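Let us begin with a simple case.
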Amino acid sequence: MNGFGIDPVAIDLRRLVRRQVASLYAHLVTRPTGRAVRLAIESQLANAGEMALSVIDFSEVHVVDFSCADEVVAKLLLHYQPPGRAARAFFILRGVSDLHLEPIEAVLERHRLTAVAETAAGPCRLVGVPSEADARVWRSLEERGALSPGDVPAHLPDEVDRAALESLVRRGLVFRRPESGDYLALSNLMRSLMG
């Protein structure tokens, strides 16, 4: 066990598409392609432990259409981060370009979801429908990397921000270490688990 109680799962979408579907390897288009890729990701997650951090790498994918974004991103989030229940998996969308963002954000908005994306433009950020408090707390935690429970009142004095932090944890957008209660930005968790 790695000290976090969470298993890392790296997902290279280009390799997965090549293995699962007979189509252009660098294109995620059509709902059946997206469904095949999502089922392959779910199969990998089924072999992980009770909780997993899945880094889904879009960097070698040239085209993502709306139906594939719905199948691969939204349906995974809805399945592993169901509203009102604790997240069973954490996801980072890595290598997301501006061309990927339009369909990804559109499906997230339609489902009222938020995800963590790492873009070439900078650090991880929230995409989809984060509230102002979500975005503010996220940026603060990303800058710090981690926050201990004892530091929360001083660092997040506003009750709205403390509620947003707990909401980010419930929705699988922030990781809370089981043994210490420390809050970790997913980018920090990714570096700790995957190097």
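The second case is a distinct protein. As before, the sequence precedes its structure tokens.
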Amino acid sequence: MPKIQWERLPREKWAHLRDRARERQISEGDLFELAAWRAQDPDVPDGDWFKDFGTFKLCGSGRYPSTFLLAGQPARGKRL
């Protein structure tokens, strides 16, 4: 299983993640929780996946994170 690739993401991908975090009001505390999970260097499946943090979800495909969703928004793929 691949690891999430946070380094060398295309500029557009970083901008999208930043914009979604701001738009969906992901709190600083939530981002610290994301950072703690990221520090564990988790495996992700090759296809679509999501990690539910309770107040938000991080979604991705393969090794790339793709967007943030609010807690009530449906996500597709494998739940981590």
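The chain has a mean pLDDT of 92. Residues 11-23 form the longest helix (13 residues).
Keep these points in mind for the review questions at the end of the chapter.
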